[in-house]
Amino acid sequence: MSVRVKLTLSYAGFLMLAGALLMAAVWVFLLAYVPEQAMLNNAEDKDKLGGVFPVRSALLDVFAPRAAAVLAFLLVFGLVGGWILAGRMLAPLTRITDATRMATSGSLSHRIQLPGRGDEFRELADAFDTMLERLEAHVAEQQRFAANASHELRTPLATTQALLDVARSDPHRDIDELVERLRIVNTRAIDLTEALLVLSRADKQAFTREPVDLSLLMEEAAETLLPLAEKRGVTIDTSGDIATASGSPALLLQMTTNLVHNAIVHNLPELGSVWVRTGVRSGSAVLTVENSGEKLSPLLVSTLTEPFQRGTERIHNDHAGVGLGLAIVQRIIHVHDGSLTLTPRADGGLRIAVQLPAPAPHSAK
Ligand SMILES: Nc1ncnc2c1ncn2[C@@H]1O[C@H](COP(=O)(O)OP(=O)(O)OP(=O)(O)O)[C@@H](O)[C@H]1O
Ligand SMILES: [Mg+2]
């Protein structure tokens, strides 16, 4: 049974009930004033009716059919009126249902845009519109990501193809050099694929949370990357207190490594510095990674966490990254319910602050 029919029946039912009660009240009222029988004075009538006149039953004979007629009218009125009213009340629902159907069939650009006052239907429609908007933005982002990823993955394959074509047509090819270049291109493809895998695996449900000390991760990342830093003439300065966050040690180590790696490779060509700090601020574990480097504009900095964004330095930097490092960092922080802040330093370079929630008191060691 549709809601419209149910509402109509309820309207009509209530109207009937109220009508019946009214009739009963009238009847009781009449009874209080009308005697059961009346003595007759007229001699002729006395003969016919045996001296008394049954007033009440006569009244009932008159009242009952009229009451029935009124109730019948109320029934028809209630059904018709209820049908119309219910239709008007439920009209917004039809619009919402239509929009839902369109969204189900893949059209996310449609909006309900329900006019009128801020009633419950309007709230529902507005919430639905907001959801559609988010969904549309999310789908667009995913599509952009897939397109970028495919493009990035095609690059090493196309490079390989070009290297092979050139080698085939060149009778004096240097096999060793070819192998070496193919190896570099291949490594890059592997790096990219691995980064994409990390990105897609960093899922909220996919890991168990445990207390992780960021200062230990900082030391581990700095130690691992020390050879790279030395090769580039960058000094790493680590210090800080124990900062316990709640999360996956593997993912948080990946995050720390990515940040320190960036701080080393996107630094000054020589005599660069990296400062890594840990601490606790207002109950959260905080990790900051700061590095010297060329001056960055706030506008550029705000785009760096987007996948495949590589800043400006690709031309004069031999580190050809895939541009997913910060996207991975952001994703890891997101699944840990933390926050990431990027600020350009006044003297050049970048300051990155990560804030992660501390473990709940009962799970802390
Ligand atoms: N610490 C930093 N200092 C200055 N610039 C940075 C820093 N970290 C990132 N950037 C800029 O942000 C861009 C994006 O960084 P991201 O880590 O996402 O990619 P990438 O380092 O180029 O490649 P990879 O995916 O291999 O890490 C970098 O190309 C660089 O221009
Ligand atoms: Mg990087």
Automatic annotation (TrEMBL):
CDD domains given in the database record: HAMP, HisKA
Entry's localization field: Cell membrane
Residue ranges crossing the lipid bilayer per the database entry: 12-34, 63-86
Signal peptide span: none
Example of a GO MF term: phosphorelay sensor kinase activity
Domain named Histidine kinase: residues: 148-360
Domain HAMP: 87-140
EC number: 2.7.13.3
GO cellular component assignments: plasma membrane
InterPro entries listed in its UniProt record: HAMP_dom, HATPase_C_sf, HATPase_dom, His_kinase_dom, HisK_dim/P_dom, HisK_dim/P_sf, Sig_transdc_His_kin-like_C, TCS_sensor_his_kinase
Reaction equations catalysed: ATP + protein L-histidine = ADP + protein N-phospho-L-histidine
Key words, A-Z: Kinase, Membrane, Phosphoprotein, Transferase, Transmembrane, Transmembrane helix, Two-component regulatory system
Pfam families attached to this UniProt entry: HAMP (PF00672), HATPase_c (PF02518), HisKA (PF00512)
Superkingdom as given in the UniProt entry: Bacteria
Enzyme class (EC, first level): transferase
Main subcellular localisation: membrane
Protein name in UniProt: histidine kinase
Organism: Streptomyces cupreus
Lineage, opening ranks: Bacteria, Bacillati, Actinomycetota, Actinomycetes, Kitasatosporales
